[in-house]
Design a protein that fits this description.
Largest sheet: 4 strands, mixed
CATH class of the largest domain: Alpha Beta
Distance between the termini: 104 Å
Helix content: 40-55%
Structural class: alpha/beta
CATH architecture of the largest domain: 3-Layer(aba) Sandwich
Shape: elongated
Radius of gyration: 33 Å
Strand content: 5-15%
CATH superfamily of the largest domain: HUPs
Length: 565
Protein backbone atom coordinates (compact mmCIF):
# COMPACT_ATOMS: atom_id res chain seq x y z
CA UNK A 1 0.00 0.00 0.00
CA UNK A 2 1.26 3.45 -0.98
CA UNK A 3 0.47 5.25 2.31
CA UNK A 4 1.73 8.60 0.99
CA UNK A 5 -0.78 8.44 -1.85
CA UNK A 6 -3.53 7.25 0.51
CA UNK A 7 -2.93 10.22 2.80
CA UNK A 8 -3.11 12.65 -0.13
CA UNK A 9 -6.35 11.06 -1.33
CA UNK A 10 -7.99 11.32 2.09
CA UNK A 11 -6.69 14.77 2.97
CA UNK A 12 -6.02 16.67 -0.27
CA UNK A 13 -6.67 20.01 1.42
CA UNK A 14 -3.98 19.45 4.08
CA UNK A 15 -0.66 20.93 3.02
CA UNK A 16 0.95 21.61 6.38
CA UNK A 17 3.13 19.10 8.17
CA UNK A 18 3.28 18.38 11.91
CA UNK A 19 6.50 20.42 12.15
CA UNK A 20 4.63 23.46 10.81
CA UNK A 21 2.00 23.10 13.52
CA UNK A 22 4.65 22.54 16.19
CA UNK A 23 6.23 25.85 15.19
CA UNK A 24 2.90 27.60 15.80
CA UNK A 25 2.81 26.21 19.35
CA UNK A 26 6.32 26.67 20.76
CA UNK A 27 7.23 25.33 24.20
CA UNK A 28 6.17 27.51 27.11
CA UNK A 29 8.76 29.61 28.90
CA UNK A 30 8.16 28.66 32.52
CA UNK A 31 10.29 28.13 35.64
CA UNK A 32 11.74 24.68 36.20
CA UNK A 33 9.20 22.41 37.83
CA UNK A 34 6.24 24.56 36.77
CA UNK A 35 3.16 22.51 35.94
CA UNK A 36 0.72 23.17 33.13
CA UNK A 37 -2.73 21.81 33.87
CA UNK A 38 -6.14 22.20 32.36
CA UNK A 39 -9.82 21.79 32.88
CA UNK A 40 -11.33 20.41 29.69
CA UNK A 41 -15.09 19.96 30.09
CA UNK A 42 -17.72 19.24 27.50
CA UNK A 43 -20.41 21.97 27.44
CA UNK A 44 -23.22 19.52 28.05
CA UNK A 45 -24.76 20.85 31.27
CA UNK A 46 -24.07 22.18 34.73
CA UNK A 47 -20.80 22.00 36.65
CA UNK A 48 -20.82 18.82 38.76
CA UNK A 49 -19.25 18.78 42.22
CA UNK A 50 -17.12 15.99 40.82
CA UNK A 51 -15.83 18.48 38.25
CA UNK A 52 -14.78 21.00 40.89
CA UNK A 53 -12.74 18.25 42.52
CA UNK A 54 -10.14 17.63 39.77
CA UNK A 55 -10.25 21.30 38.76
CA UNK A 56 -9.19 22.32 42.25
CA UNK A 57 -6.31 19.85 42.04
CA UNK A 58 -5.32 21.28 38.65
CA UNK A 59 -5.50 24.83 39.98
CA UNK A 60 -3.41 24.07 43.05
CA UNK A 61 -0.73 22.14 41.14
CA UNK A 62 -0.36 24.86 38.53
CA UNK A 63 -0.36 27.89 40.78
CA UNK A 64 1.72 26.39 43.60
CA UNK A 65 4.44 25.60 41.07
CA UNK A 66 4.38 28.90 39.19
CA UNK A 67 2.75 27.21 36.23
CA UNK A 68 -0.35 27.70 34.10
CA UNK A 69 -3.97 26.60 34.42
CA UNK A 70 -6.00 26.86 31.23
CA UNK A 71 -9.55 26.09 30.16
CA UNK A 72 -10.21 24.09 27.02
CA UNK A 73 -13.75 23.51 25.82
CA UNK A 74 -14.13 20.02 24.36
CA UNK A 75 -17.17 20.63 22.19
CA UNK A 76 -16.66 17.98 19.52
CA UNK A 77 -19.98 16.27 20.31
CA UNK A 78 -22.44 18.78 18.87
CA UNK A 79 -25.43 16.52 19.56
CA UNK A 80 -24.92 16.72 23.33
CA UNK A 81 -23.90 20.38 23.56
CA UNK A 82 -26.20 22.61 25.62
CA UNK A 83 -26.40 26.24 24.44
CA UNK A 84 -24.85 28.60 26.98
CA UNK A 85 -23.33 25.76 29.01
CA UNK A 86 -19.74 26.86 28.37
CA UNK A 87 -20.46 30.40 29.53
CA UNK A 88 -22.31 29.17 32.63
CA UNK A 89 -19.43 26.82 33.42
CA UNK A 90 -16.88 29.65 33.34
CA UNK A 91 -19.02 31.86 35.58
CA UNK A 92 -19.62 29.06 38.09
CA UNK A 93 -15.98 28.09 38.38
CA UNK A 94 -15.03 31.74 38.88
CA UNK A 95 -17.40 31.88 41.86
CA UNK A 96 -15.49 28.97 43.40
CA UNK A 97 -12.08 30.55 43.02
CA UNK A 98 -11.02 28.70 39.89
CA UNK A 99 -9.55 31.42 37.71
CA UNK A 100 -7.80 30.43 34.52
CA UNK A 101 -4.57 31.99 33.33
CA UNK A 102 -5.52 31.42 29.73
CA UNK A 103 -7.95 29.59 27.52
CA UNK A 104 -11.63 30.05 26.91
CA UNK A 105 -12.84 33.09 28.83
CA UNK A 106 -15.90 35.34 28.70
CA UNK A 107 -15.56 38.32 26.41
CA UNK A 108 -17.24 41.68 26.91
CA UNK A 109 -20.31 40.35 25.11
CA UNK A 110 -20.60 37.48 27.60
CA UNK A 111 -19.61 34.89 25.01
CA UNK A 112 -16.64 32.53 25.11
CA UNK A 113 -13.48 34.03 23.62
CA UNK A 114 -9.83 33.02 23.46
CA UNK A 115 -7.19 34.43 25.77
CA UNK A 116 -3.70 33.06 25.23
CA UNK A 117 -1.20 32.02 22.58
CA UNK A 118 -2.19 28.34 22.34
CA UNK A 119 -5.71 28.63 20.99
CA UNK A 120 -8.22 28.17 19.65
CA UNK A 121 -9.31 26.75 23.01
CA UNK A 122 -12.55 25.32 21.62
CA UNK A 123 -11.90 22.00 19.94
CA UNK A 124 -14.60 22.62 17.34
CA UNK A 125 -12.38 25.40 15.96
CA UNK A 126 -9.21 23.29 15.77
CA UNK A 127 -10.27 20.93 12.95
CA UNK A 128 -7.43 21.79 10.51
CA UNK A 129 -4.85 21.09 13.25
CA UNK A 130 -6.17 17.59 13.90
CA UNK A 131 -6.24 16.82 10.19
CA UNK A 132 -2.53 17.56 9.85
CA UNK A 133 -1.69 14.91 12.45
CA UNK A 134 -4.31 12.54 11.10
CA UNK A 135 -2.75 12.75 7.64
CA UNK A 136 0.67 12.04 9.12
CA UNK A 137 -0.62 8.91 10.85
CA UNK A 138 -2.01 7.69 7.53
CA UNK A 139 1.34 8.38 5.85
CA UNK A 140 3.02 6.24 8.48
CA UNK A 141 0.55 3.39 8.03
CA UNK A 142 -0.84 3.88 11.54
CA UNK A 143 -4.36 4.96 10.59
CA UNK A 144 -6.77 3.93 7.84
CA UNK A 145 -10.16 4.95 6.44
CA UNK A 146 -13.30 2.99 6.98
CA UNK A 147 -16.12 3.68 4.54
CA UNK A 148 -19.34 2.61 6.22
CA UNK A 149 -22.34 4.05 8.03
CA UNK A 150 -21.99 5.70 11.41
CA UNK A 151 -24.48 3.22 12.89
CA UNK A 152 -22.39 0.25 11.78
CA UNK A 153 -19.27 1.79 13.22
CA UNK A 154 -20.95 2.54 16.51
CA UNK A 155 -22.10 -1.05 16.77
CA UNK A 156 -18.66 -2.31 15.82
CA UNK A 157 -17.02 -0.39 18.64
CA UNK A 158 -19.32 -1.53 21.42
CA UNK A 159 -18.28 -4.59 23.41
CA UNK A 160 -19.72 -5.39 26.82
CA UNK A 161 -16.68 -6.65 28.72
CA UNK A 162 -18.68 -8.02 31.68
CA UNK A 163 -20.97 -10.04 29.43
CA UNK A 164 -17.97 -11.40 27.54
CA UNK A 165 -16.77 -13.08 30.71
CA UNK A 166 -20.01 -14.80 31.69
CA UNK A 167 -21.76 -15.29 28.37
CA UNK A 168 -20.18 -17.39 25.63
CA UNK A 169 -22.50 -15.83 23.04
CA UNK A 170 -21.15 -12.40 23.89
CA UNK A 171 -17.64 -13.75 23.64
CA UNK A 172 -18.40 -15.18 20.23
CA UNK A 173 -19.89 -11.88 19.15
CA UNK A 174 -16.78 -10.07 20.40
CA UNK A 175 -14.64 -12.40 18.32
CA UNK A 176 -16.87 -11.68 15.34
CA UNK A 177 -16.42 -7.97 15.88
CA UNK A 178 -12.70 -8.48 16.06
CA UNK A 179 -12.76 -10.43 12.82
CA UNK A 180 -14.81 -7.70 11.17
CA UNK A 181 -12.34 -5.07 12.35
CA UNK A 182 -9.45 -7.06 10.86
CA UNK A 183 -11.40 -7.49 7.61
CA UNK A 184 -11.91 -3.74 7.32
CA UNK A 185 -8.16 -3.25 7.47
CA UNK A 186 -7.96 -4.98 4.11
CA UNK A 187 -8.76 -2.62 1.25
CA UNK A 188 -7.28 -1.51 -2.04
CA UNK A 189 -6.38 1.94 -3.29
CA UNK A 190 -8.96 1.47 -6.05
CA UNK A 191 -11.71 0.95 -3.45
CA UNK A 192 -10.69 4.12 -1.67
CA UNK A 193 -10.72 6.09 -4.93
CA UNK A 194 -14.13 4.69 -5.87
CA UNK A 195 -15.67 5.61 -2.50
CA UNK A 196 -14.23 9.09 -2.64
CA UNK A 197 -15.39 9.57 -6.21
CA UNK A 198 -19.06 9.05 -5.24
CA UNK A 199 -18.69 11.14 -2.06
CA UNK A 200 -18.97 8.36 0.50
CA UNK A 201 -17.84 9.61 3.93
CA UNK A 202 -15.26 7.77 5.97
CA UNK A 203 -14.10 7.60 9.53
CA UNK A 204 -10.43 7.35 10.30
CA UNK A 205 -9.37 4.55 12.60
CA UNK A 206 -6.09 3.92 14.33
CA UNK A 207 -4.28 0.75 13.31
CA UNK A 208 -3.77 -0.71 16.75
CA UNK A 209 -0.64 -2.75 17.37
CA UNK A 210 -1.42 -3.89 20.90
CA UNK A 211 -1.75 -7.38 22.29
CA UNK A 212 -4.38 -7.60 25.06
CA UNK A 213 -2.47 -10.53 26.51
CA UNK A 214 0.42 -8.18 27.24
CA UNK A 215 0.54 -5.48 29.88
CA UNK A 216 1.73 -1.88 29.91
CA UNK A 217 3.47 -0.76 33.06
CA UNK A 218 2.33 2.67 34.05
CA UNK A 219 2.69 4.97 37.07
CA UNK A 220 -0.36 7.01 38.02
CA UNK A 221 0.44 9.88 40.39
CA UNK A 222 -2.53 8.98 42.60
CA UNK A 223 -2.97 5.24 42.21
CA UNK A 224 0.72 4.39 41.93
CA UNK A 225 2.23 1.63 39.79
CA UNK A 226 -0.27 -0.09 37.53
CA UNK A 227 -0.42 -2.66 34.77
CA UNK A 228 -3.03 -2.30 32.03
CA UNK A 229 -3.67 -4.43 28.91
CA UNK A 230 -2.28 -3.09 25.66
CA UNK A 231 -4.84 -1.60 23.29
CA UNK A 232 -5.81 -3.78 20.34
CA UNK A 233 -8.92 -1.85 19.30
CA UNK A 234 -8.90 0.18 16.08
CA UNK A 235 -10.79 3.03 17.73
CA UNK A 236 -12.00 6.04 15.73
CA UNK A 237 -9.75 9.11 15.42
CA UNK A 238 -11.89 11.22 13.10
CA UNK A 239 -15.64 10.86 12.70
CA UNK A 240 -17.31 10.94 9.31
CA UNK A 241 -17.81 14.71 9.55
CA UNK A 242 -14.07 15.21 10.10
CA UNK A 243 -14.52 16.03 13.80
CA UNK A 244 -12.06 14.22 16.08
CA UNK A 245 -13.05 11.93 18.89
CA UNK A 246 -12.11 12.82 22.46
CA UNK A 247 -9.21 10.37 22.37
CA UNK A 248 -7.49 11.92 19.36
CA UNK A 249 -8.27 15.56 20.14
CA UNK A 250 -7.05 15.43 23.72
CA UNK A 251 -3.73 13.85 22.72
CA UNK A 252 -3.02 16.49 20.09
CA UNK A 253 -4.19 19.39 22.24
CA UNK A 254 -2.45 18.35 25.44
CA UNK A 255 0.80 18.10 23.50
CA UNK A 256 0.50 21.40 21.62
CA UNK A 257 -0.72 23.29 24.68
CA UNK A 258 2.15 21.97 26.77
CA UNK A 259 0.07 20.10 29.33
CA UNK A 260 2.33 18.44 31.89
CA UNK A 261 -0.31 16.90 34.17
CA UNK A 262 -3.73 15.51 33.24
CA UNK A 263 -6.09 15.30 36.22
CA UNK A 264 -9.31 13.40 35.61
CA UNK A 265 -11.73 10.89 37.13
CA UNK A 266 -10.88 7.23 37.40
CA UNK A 267 -13.69 6.43 34.97
CA UNK A 268 -11.16 7.30 32.25
CA UNK A 269 -8.79 4.48 33.24
CA UNK A 270 -10.26 2.04 30.66
CA UNK A 271 -9.24 4.53 27.93
CA UNK A 272 -5.70 4.98 29.19
CA UNK A 273 -4.16 2.31 26.96
CA UNK A 274 -5.64 4.05 23.93
CA UNK A 275 -4.19 7.38 24.99
CA UNK A 276 -0.75 5.96 25.68
CA UNK A 277 -0.78 4.33 22.24
CA UNK A 278 -1.77 7.63 20.62
CA UNK A 279 1.04 9.58 22.27
CA UNK A 280 3.49 6.90 21.15
CA UNK A 281 2.19 6.91 17.56
CA UNK A 282 2.27 10.71 17.38
CA UNK A 283 5.78 10.89 18.82
CA UNK A 284 4.63 13.08 21.72
CA UNK A 285 5.91 13.02 25.28
CA UNK A 286 3.18 11.54 27.47
CA UNK A 287 1.90 13.87 30.20
CA UNK A 288 1.68 12.63 33.76
CA UNK A 289 -1.74 11.27 34.61
CA UNK A 290 -3.70 11.47 37.85
CA UNK A 291 -6.89 9.44 38.01
CA UNK A 292 -8.99 10.59 40.96
CA UNK A 293 -11.37 8.20 42.68
CA UNK A 294 -15.08 8.86 42.40
CA UNK A 295 -16.90 10.89 45.05
CA UNK A 296 -19.27 8.71 47.04
CA UNK A 297 -22.32 9.35 49.20
CA UNK A 298 -24.33 7.27 51.65
CA UNK A 299 -27.82 6.24 50.60
CA UNK A 300 -30.72 5.86 53.01
CA UNK A 301 -29.61 2.32 53.86
CA UNK A 302 -26.10 3.49 54.69
CA UNK A 303 -24.55 2.02 51.54
CA UNK A 304 -21.93 3.90 49.54
CA UNK A 305 -23.05 5.09 46.13
CA UNK A 306 -21.50 7.28 43.49
CA UNK A 307 -22.56 10.93 43.77
CA UNK A 308 -24.71 11.10 40.64
CA UNK A 309 -25.84 14.20 38.81
CA UNK A 310 -29.35 13.75 40.25
CA UNK A 311 -28.19 13.89 43.88
CA UNK A 312 -28.50 17.04 45.94
CA UNK A 313 -25.11 18.69 46.03
CA UNK A 314 -24.01 17.34 42.65
CA UNK A 315 -24.92 20.53 40.79
CA UNK A 316 -22.66 23.39 41.85
CA UNK A 317 -25.60 25.76 41.40
CA UNK A 318 -27.28 23.92 44.31
CA UNK A 319 -24.79 25.48 46.70
CA UNK A 320 -25.66 28.99 45.62
CA UNK A 321 -29.37 28.32 46.03
CA UNK A 322 -28.87 26.67 49.44
CA UNK A 323 -26.78 29.64 50.57
CA UNK A 324 -23.34 28.10 51.01
CA UNK A 325 -20.55 30.62 50.66
CA UNK A 326 -18.00 29.61 47.99
CA UNK A 327 -15.09 29.86 50.44
CA UNK A 328 -16.68 27.17 52.61
CA UNK A 329 -17.24 24.83 49.67
CA UNK A 330 -13.62 25.30 48.57
CA UNK A 331 -12.41 24.69 52.10
CA UNK A 332 -14.51 21.53 52.28
CA UNK A 333 -13.08 20.30 48.98
CA UNK A 334 -9.59 20.69 50.44
CA UNK A 335 -10.51 18.50 53.42
CA UNK A 336 -11.53 15.80 50.94
CA UNK A 337 -8.47 16.17 48.75
CA UNK A 338 -5.69 16.01 51.33
CA UNK A 339 -5.81 13.94 54.52
CA UNK A 340 -3.58 16.40 56.40
CA UNK A 341 -5.56 19.52 55.54
CA UNK A 342 -7.54 19.70 58.77
CA UNK A 343 -4.39 19.40 60.86
CA UNK A 344 -2.88 22.26 58.86
CA UNK A 345 -6.03 24.34 59.32
CA UNK A 346 -5.87 23.95 63.11
CA UNK A 347 -2.28 25.19 63.05
CA UNK A 348 -3.08 28.02 60.62
CA UNK A 349 -6.58 29.23 61.52
CA UNK A 350 -6.26 32.63 59.85
CA UNK A 351 -4.65 31.65 56.56
CA UNK A 352 -6.38 31.17 53.23
CA UNK A 353 -6.84 27.59 52.03
CA UNK A 354 -4.69 28.64 49.08
CA UNK A 355 -1.70 28.85 51.44
CA UNK A 356 -1.98 25.13 52.16
CA UNK A 357 0.87 23.12 50.53
CA UNK A 358 -1.25 20.72 48.50
CA UNK A 359 0.38 17.30 48.15
CA UNK A 360 -0.55 14.64 45.59
CA UNK A 361 0.74 11.91 47.92
CA UNK A 362 -1.88 12.85 50.53
CA UNK A 363 -4.77 12.16 48.15
CA UNK A 364 -7.09 9.23 48.76
CA UNK A 365 -6.74 6.26 46.43
CA UNK A 366 -10.09 4.72 47.36
CA UNK A 367 -12.33 7.78 47.05
CA UNK A 368 -13.98 10.38 49.25
CA UNK A 369 -17.33 10.42 51.01
CA UNK A 370 -19.50 13.48 50.46
CA UNK A 371 -21.16 14.57 53.71
CA UNK A 372 -23.39 17.63 54.14
CA UNK A 373 -22.87 17.57 57.91
CA UNK A 374 -19.13 17.90 57.47
CA UNK A 375 -19.67 20.68 54.94
CA UNK A 376 -21.86 22.49 57.47
CA UNK A 377 -19.19 22.24 60.15
CA UNK A 378 -16.57 23.60 57.79
CA UNK A 379 -18.90 26.36 56.67
CA UNK A 380 -19.69 27.46 60.24
CA UNK A 381 -15.99 27.86 60.92
CA UNK A 382 -15.44 29.84 57.73
CA UNK A 383 -18.37 32.21 58.30
CA UNK A 384 -17.52 32.71 61.98
CA UNK A 385 -14.24 34.32 60.92
CA UNK A 386 -15.89 36.88 58.64
CA UNK A 387 -16.55 40.39 59.88
CA UNK A 388 -20.09 41.60 60.45
CA UNK A 389 -20.27 43.81 57.36
CA UNK A 390 -19.17 40.98 55.07
CA UNK A 391 -21.77 38.61 56.49
CA UNK A 392 -24.51 41.26 56.41
CA UNK A 393 -23.76 42.18 52.81
CA UNK A 394 -23.60 38.60 51.59
CA UNK A 395 -26.71 37.42 53.44
CA UNK A 396 -28.57 40.42 52.03
CA UNK A 397 -27.37 39.69 48.49
CA UNK A 398 -28.37 36.04 48.79
CA UNK A 399 -31.76 36.82 50.33
CA UNK A 400 -32.65 39.40 47.67
CA UNK A 401 -32.17 36.63 45.10
CA UNK A 402 -33.75 33.68 46.93
CA UNK A 403 -35.97 35.17 49.68
CA UNK A 404 -36.94 38.64 48.41
CA UNK A 405 -39.13 39.65 51.38
CA UNK A 406 -36.36 38.85 53.85
CA UNK A 407 -33.80 40.48 51.59
CA UNK A 408 -35.85 43.68 51.45
CA UNK A 409 -36.01 43.76 55.25
CA UNK A 410 -32.24 43.32 55.53
CA UNK A 411 -31.58 46.00 52.92
CA UNK A 412 -33.92 48.53 54.56
CA UNK A 413 -31.35 49.59 57.16
CA UNK A 414 -27.85 48.18 56.45
CA UNK A 415 -26.43 49.56 59.72
CA UNK A 416 -29.17 47.80 61.71
CA UNK A 417 -28.53 44.56 59.83
CA UNK A 418 -24.78 44.81 60.38
CA UNK A 419 -25.30 45.35 64.11
CA UNK A 420 -27.31 42.12 64.26
CA UNK A 421 -24.54 40.09 62.64
CA UNK A 422 -21.95 41.69 64.90
CA UNK A 423 -23.42 39.84 67.90
CA UNK A 424 -20.88 37.33 69.19
CA UNK A 425 -18.58 37.95 66.23
CA UNK A 426 -14.85 38.32 66.73
CA UNK A 427 -12.71 37.17 69.62
CA UNK A 428 -11.22 33.75 70.21
CA UNK A 429 -14.56 31.93 70.34
CA UNK A 430 -16.97 33.54 67.88
CA UNK A 431 -20.52 32.28 67.58
CA UNK A 432 -21.07 29.63 64.92
CA UNK A 433 -24.77 29.99 64.20
CA UNK A 434 -24.61 30.10 60.41
CA UNK A 435 -23.69 27.25 58.11
CA UNK A 436 -25.45 28.86 55.15
CA UNK A 437 -26.90 32.26 54.37
CA UNK A 438 -30.30 30.54 54.51
CA UNK A 439 -29.72 29.94 58.23
CA UNK A 440 -29.82 33.70 58.87
CA UNK A 441 -33.59 34.03 58.80
CA UNK A 442 -34.29 31.40 61.49
CA UNK A 443 -31.36 32.79 63.50
CA UNK A 444 -32.17 36.50 63.46
CA UNK A 445 -35.43 37.02 61.60
CA UNK A 446 -37.08 37.89 64.91
CA UNK A 447 -35.39 41.30 64.78
CA UNK A 448 -37.92 42.24 62.12
CA UNK A 449 -41.57 42.40 63.19
CA UNK A 450 -42.81 40.82 59.96
CA UNK A 451 -40.82 37.67 60.73
CA UNK A 452 -41.32 37.60 64.50
CA UNK A 453 -43.13 34.48 65.72
CA UNK A 454 -43.29 32.48 68.93
CA UNK A 455 -41.54 29.19 68.34
CA UNK A 456 -43.02 27.82 71.58
CA UNK A 457 -45.07 28.88 74.61
CA UNK A 458 -44.21 28.77 78.27
CA UNK A 459 -44.17 25.28 79.70
CA UNK A 460 -47.17 24.45 81.91
CA UNK A 461 -44.79 23.72 84.81
CA UNK A 462 -44.27 27.46 85.22
CA UNK A 463 -46.69 29.62 87.18
CA UNK A 464 -48.27 32.10 84.75
CA UNK A 465 -48.67 34.59 87.57
CA UNK A 466 -44.89 34.46 88.14
CA UNK A 467 -44.23 35.02 84.45
CA UNK A 468 -46.55 38.04 84.36
CA UNK A 469 -44.99 39.46 87.50
CA UNK A 470 -41.47 39.10 86.12
CA UNK A 471 -42.37 40.66 82.74
CA UNK A 472 -44.20 43.54 84.41
CA UNK A 473 -41.32 44.02 86.84
CA UNK A 474 -38.87 44.10 83.98
CA UNK A 475 -40.86 46.79 82.21
CA UNK A 476 -40.96 48.93 85.35
CA UNK A 477 -37.18 48.78 85.86
CA UNK A 478 -35.81 48.56 82.32
CA UNK A 479 -33.42 51.35 81.40
CA UNK A 480 -31.80 51.20 77.99
CA UNK A 481 -28.82 53.13 79.34
CA UNK A 482 -27.92 50.39 81.85
CA UNK A 483 -24.68 48.54 81.19
CA UNK A 484 -24.80 44.76 80.99
CA UNK A 485 -23.93 44.14 84.64
CA UNK A 486 -26.57 46.55 85.92
CA UNK A 487 -29.13 45.09 83.55
CA UNK A 488 -28.40 41.54 84.71
CA UNK A 489 -28.55 42.48 88.40
CA UNK A 490 -32.06 43.79 87.79
CA UNK A 491 -33.00 40.54 86.07
CA UNK A 492 -31.75 38.52 89.02
CA UNK A 493 -33.64 40.74 91.45
CA UNK A 494 -36.91 40.18 89.61
CA UNK A 495 -37.12 36.48 90.32
CA UNK A 496 -35.67 36.16 93.80
CA UNK A 497 -38.80 37.31 95.74
CA UNK A 498 -40.81 34.77 93.73
CA UNK A 499 -38.51 31.85 94.54
CA UNK A 500 -36.19 31.95 91.54
CA UNK A 501 -32.69 31.94 92.94
CA UNK A 502 -29.94 34.07 91.35
CA UNK A 503 -27.38 31.57 92.70
CA UNK A 504 -26.88 28.93 90.01
CA UNK A 505 -24.57 26.84 92.19
CA UNK A 506 -27.21 26.66 94.92
CA UNK A 507 -29.86 25.73 92.37
CA UNK A 508 -27.78 22.93 90.90
CA UNK A 509 -26.99 21.63 94.38
CA UNK A 510 -30.71 21.41 95.35
CA UNK A 511 -33.14 22.36 92.55
CA UNK A 512 -36.12 21.21 94.65
CA UNK A 513 -35.51 24.06 97.07
CA UNK A 514 -36.53 26.67 94.48
CA UNK A 515 -39.18 27.32 91.86
CA UNK A 516 -36.35 27.89 89.41
CA UNK A 517 -33.29 30.00 88.80
CA UNK A 518 -32.27 33.22 87.11
CA UNK A 519 -31.93 31.12 83.91
CA UNK A 520 -35.71 30.64 83.97
CA UNK A 521 -36.26 34.36 84.57
CA UNK A 522 -34.07 35.16 81.56
CA UNK A 523 -35.95 32.58 79.51
CA UNK A 524 -39.31 34.26 80.31
CA UNK A 525 -37.97 37.58 79.02
CA UNK A 526 -36.11 36.06 76.07
CA UNK A 527 -39.20 34.29 74.76
CA UNK A 528 -41.22 37.48 75.00
CA UNK A 529 -38.60 39.59 73.17
CA UNK A 530 -37.30 37.12 70.58
CA UNK A 531 -39.95 34.40 70.38
CA UNK A 532 -37.15 31.87 70.82
CA UNK A 533 -35.76 29.77 73.65
CA UNK A 534 -32.30 30.06 72.14
CA UNK A 535 -31.18 33.41 70.81
CA UNK A 536 -28.09 35.62 70.79
CA UNK A 537 -27.10 37.55 73.91
CA UNK A 538 -30.36 39.04 75.23
CA UNK A 539 -28.86 42.29 76.50
CA UNK A 540 -27.33 42.99 73.08
CA UNK A 541 -30.55 42.02 71.32
CA UNK A 542 -32.45 44.63 73.35
CA UNK A 543 -29.81 47.26 72.62
CA UNK A 544 -30.25 46.67 68.90
CA UNK A 545 -34.06 46.50 69.00
CA UNK A 546 -34.28 49.64 71.09
CA UNK A 547 -36.42 50.43 74.13
CA UNK A 548 -39.69 51.00 72.28
CA UNK A 549 -39.66 47.74 70.34
CA UNK A 550 -38.44 45.72 73.34
CA UNK A 551 -41.21 47.05 75.57
CA UNK A 552 -43.82 46.62 72.84
CA UNK A 553 -43.01 42.91 72.50
CA UNK A 554 -43.17 42.34 76.25
CA UNK A 555 -46.53 44.13 76.38
CA UNK A 556 -47.83 41.87 73.64
CA UNK A 557 -46.67 38.82 75.56
CA UNK A 558 -48.47 40.08 78.67
CA UNK A 559 -51.60 40.50 76.56
CA UNK A 560 -51.22 36.94 75.25
CA UNK A 561 -50.83 35.60 78.79
CA UNK A 562 -53.94 37.50 79.86
CA UNK A 563 -55.95 36.00 77.01
CA UNK A 564 -54.76 32.47 77.81
CA UNK A 565 -56.07 32.54 81.40
Amino acid sequence: MDFEKLADLLFPQVTKKPADIEAEFPPRSLPEGAKVTRFAPSPTGFVHFGGLFPTTVAERLAHQSGGVLYLRIEDTDAKREVPGAAEALIRTLSVYGVNFDEGAILGEDGKVADHGAYGPYKQSLRGPIYHVFAKQLVKEGRAYPCFTTEEELEELGQVNKKEEIKNTDWQAEAEARRAEMLRRRQFTMEEVEANLAVGNPFVLRILADGDPEKKIRFTDLVKGNMEIPENDEDFVLLKSDGIPTYHFAHAVDDHLMGTTHVIRGEEWLPSLAKHLQLFRYLGFKTPKYMHIAQIMRLDEAGNKKKLSKRDMGANMDDYTRMGYCPEAVCEYVMTLLNSNYEEWRMQNPDKSYRDFPFNIKKMSVSGCLFDFRKLDDVSKNVISKMDAKTVADRVTEWALAFDPAFGAALARDPAFTEAIFAIGRGGKKPRKDLATWADAKPYMGFFFDEFFALETTYDETYDRADIRAILEGFLSTYDEADDMNTWFEKVKALGEPLGYTPDMKAYKADPTAYKGSVADVSMFIRLAVTGKLNAPDLYTVMQILGKAQTEDRIQKMLHTLEESK
